[in-house]
Amino acid sequence: MTGLVNIAGTWIWYVICVAALILFVGSLAVLFSFLMDKRRVAPVIIVLLNLLMTGVVIVVLMDCGHYMHVTNTDAYKAFQSVMFEVPYQIYLMVELLSCVALFAMIIEGAKYRTDNVTPDSIQQAIDALPDGISISSKDGIVRLSNLKINTLSRALTGKVLTNAELFWDAVIKNGKEQGGSFLVDLPDNEVWLFTKEDLRIDDADYDQITSMNVTERYKIIRELEEKHGHLQDIRRRMKEVSDLSGDMFIAQEEADARAALHNQLGQVLLMGRYYINHQDITDPKMVYAATRQMNQFLLGEAKAPYQGEEDSIVQAVSMAGSIGIKVVMNGPAPENIDVRKILSKAITECAANTIKHAEGNTITVNMSADNGRTLISITNNGKRPKGEITESGGLLSLRRDVENLGGSVQIESEPEFNLIMRF
Questions:
Q1: Which of 98, 124, 272, 404 has the most CB atoms around it within 10 Å of its CB?
Q2: E strand map for 52-203
Q3: What are the tens digits of pLDDT across the range 190-201?
Q4: How far, in Å, CA of 264 to CA of 270, rounded?
Q5: What strands lie across the sheet with 418-422, from one edge to the other?
Q6: 415: preceding bond cis by omega (within 30 degrees)
Q7: 418-422 and 408-412 beta bridge pairing
Q8: Minimal CA–CA distance to 393: which of 226, 265, 247?
């Protein structure tokens, strides 16, 4: 085999040198990591031996390279000369052995960090937090901080968090005090809540600064404040109306409003119940729209409960279907817009009553028109009423609408339920 001195200066010799240097640096890095993790003695000794072995190889390689360029070779000891005559394949095998040992230590180190708490694992854990956190000594020197609070520090001070006292001064300057904490509006439209607390660890005092993203909650608070102002304005206007109007007028208007709200709310509840039991044949978009609009109406964010976006009669038929009632239409539908609105209201009311009282699933609407007169009759396939029908709520409100338009309403219970409207 060829001795090491015979390949000095060739590409093989340079490859061996570079490999030895890489192994030496890698062993040094692993040794430093093990010492930081406070590992047990055995792994540290293995890495240390690997470091020494690669260090010796580097020294021999460097001496061998120098040996080829000096005239006074007597300066080298006999041992060194012997090392130069060792086949270079032996050094390659030593480097291969060192590489295997280094790789095994790297894998063992990764497994150790997975199974044990180390400074690196602690830092990685707090860096993954969505909230910011820092721990500093009382003189402001930061001992621990995560990525999020460093990002916030750049936004407030223009640099990473190195001095906790200066950072907290910036928080106080830019924030609004909230019970000892501070709300800070950042340029990116986010709102963060910063809190500073005392922390005692191993008989030493520290300051802990935490930050929490409260953008959504703060937005809700602002909306509630705006709605509170809106409700106060409504109360003021209602008082003005009450002062200008008589008690009877207010009572009548409130009764009508309650009846309409009761009717619409009942429709939404029936629609929700039917959707829960018949999800495969119910349009979830309509259920969502009706429920959302009713909630907004109850909160004062909408002027009226859900009315839909289509023609009033088409919408009423669709609403009836959403609670499990089929609507059969016979005859020409009225063209007058006011009559169509009243018809849609009647379909909705009769559909709800058919579910609640008659236990039916179909209503039939018969319509006829002659010489400017319109006749509408609505029946259902449910159980016959047990007695005379008492008008209240939706039916009473429907009668008022018809009579206000100059029409009349007749409700029959024999031989079956029949709502007759004449215009």
A1: 98
A2: 132-137, 142-145, 175-178, 181-185, 191-201
A3: 889 999 999 888
A4: 10
A5: 326-330, 362-370, 373-380, 418-422, 408-412
A6: yes
A7: antiparallel
A8: 265
